[in-house]
Design a protein that fits this description.
seven-stranded mixed sheet; alpha/beta; 17 strands
Length: 431
């Protein structure tokens, strides 16, 4: 039997589909007293404690009862170089980018600074229960190498990309179509298939990329067909107008990406708030993913993402913190703000559906559901332990909780990093 074996006891919750509510019990599994057996970084067995296989009985185990164990959270849109611009005052997206973000990102040309910040960045993710993320680096290749290098040390699943942008930004943050291509290809060749790290093709957004750079991005996607592409789409009305002035031959903002081969089922489009019916249909037909970033959308006054409309049209979806336009590292806080936005739009969003989205739903969005996002046997043993009594206010409210759905909603509404009792990465406790 492997020495790298850990047995965890607690209440287990995992998903196999997207439940609209508690009646859809075929889409989630809840075990009141369960066990996870982690061996060599993967889940070797799960089920009721009383059914623990004989070969594991009598071995030491970690008892997390009465807390709830769920798959680790997945953040599908976050900016590594923006961890120190969270909460910077501005009235809108473009003002915020020019005043703070573009200034801050210039610092990440320094490999030593990038390495130090990568450690602090991943510390925050782990503390808040996020075990996988899809991250934007700065324009500098060293920023991406630093983040992936630190993730590799921790055996943490991380997808990151060097931002490509060759116009409409400070000179110190501009690459060229050729250097953007060369640096991204070098990253892909270095990191693809290396441990749990991956590289995303990352044109920042159409406003900061020339037509030649957009063509280069499409070429990279054809050369590396399994790579994720991440960018931004229709976050802000001024942004949309500026993009259309640069690409007058395109039907709309979504068509810009389609014209250059970037509208595929490997594409993650952050925000996707102000999209027409035509754009919505094309997003659905292509299999691209719309990424809901609620705290960022509220903070920058960008608008309200209509989940029900996009979902009804068949658009794949994800949810994310969008640090540092987003205001919290916590997926719990992100789910809470997302619920409020949907409620204002008249859209019902049950907490079981929220927790599905932050786990298996986001894993499906990045096409990695066979590796992360569940507690299924054979998947990577990334999971977290949630404590609904984490604060005095939560404990007071928890006295009246009667159902799992109520517990999830209290965790979502009142929880933050304090509610994350423990974080496990590849079966080992990281928090």
């Amino acid at each position: 039997m492997s020495l790298d074996l850990h047995i965890i006891r607690g209440r287990l919750l995992s998903f196999s589909g997207e439940p609209m509510g508690p009646d859809e019990q075929d889409k989630f599994t809840y075990v009141e007293d369960g066990a996870l057996v982690c061996e060599n970084g993967k889940i070797a067995w799960r089920g009721p404690w009383e059914s623990l296989p004989e070969k594991f009985k009598g071995l030491d185990f970690t008892d997390h009862r009465p807390h709830l164990i769920v798959p680790g959270f997945i953040d599908c849109h976050i900016h590594f170089p923006q961890l120190q611009v969270v909460g910077s005052y501005a009235g809108s997206l473009l003002e915020w980018l020019n005043t703070y973000t573009f200034v801050e990102e210039q610092r990440y040309s320094d490999a030593d600074l990038a390495a130090a910040m990568a450690s602090r960045f991943l510390d925050q993710l782990v503390s808040h229960g996020t075990t996988t993320a899809v991250a934007f680096g700065s324009v500098h290749k060293v920023s991406c190498d630093a983040l992936l290098g630190e993730a590799e040390k921790r055996n943490m699943r991380m997808i990151a990309g060097k931002v490509m942008m060759d116009r409409n930004a400070p000179e110190a943050l501009l690459d060229t179509p050729q250097t953007g291509y060369d640096d991204t290809k070098a990253l892909l060749e270095t990191w693809t298939g290396r441990g749990r790290c991956e590289v995303a093709i990352t044109p920042r957004f159409a406003l900061t990329s020339s037509e030649e750079q957009m063509e280069i991005s499409g070429a990279l996607m054809r050369e590396f067909p399994n790579a994720i592409m991440q960018t931004h789409l229709s976050e802000n009305h001024d942004e949309i107008a500026a993009v259309m002035a640069l690409y007058p031959h395109c039907k709309d903002y979504t068509d810009v990406y389609e014209q250059y081969g970037l509208l595929t089922d490997k594409a993650l489009f952050g925000h996707t708030i102000h999209v027409s019916e035509r754009e919505t249909a094309r997003l659905a037909e292509s299999g691209a993913v719309a990424v809901f970033c609620p705290t960022s959308n509220l903070f920058l006054g960008s608008g309200s993402y209509d989940h029900a409309r996009l979902s009804a049209a068949g658009v794949r979806h994800a949810i994310a913190t969008d640090i540092g336009g987003g205001t919290s590292w916590s997926m719990l806080r992100t789910l809470d703000e997302g619920y409020k936005i949907q409620n204002c739009l008249g859209n019902r969003y049950h907490p079981l559906r929220s927790f599905y989205q932050a786990t298996l739903g986001n894993a499906r969005a990045i096409n990695r559901e066979s590796e992360v996002g569940t507690l299924d046997i054979g998947t990577e043993a990334d999971f977290i332990v949630l404590n609904v009594h984490a604060t005095s206010a939560m404990a007071l409210r928890a006295e009246r909780i009667e159902t799992l759905s109520e517990e999830l909603f209290v965790l979502q509404t009142m929880g933050d990093d304090r509610a994350v009792e423990a974080t496990y990465i590849a079966g080992n406790k990281a928090k």
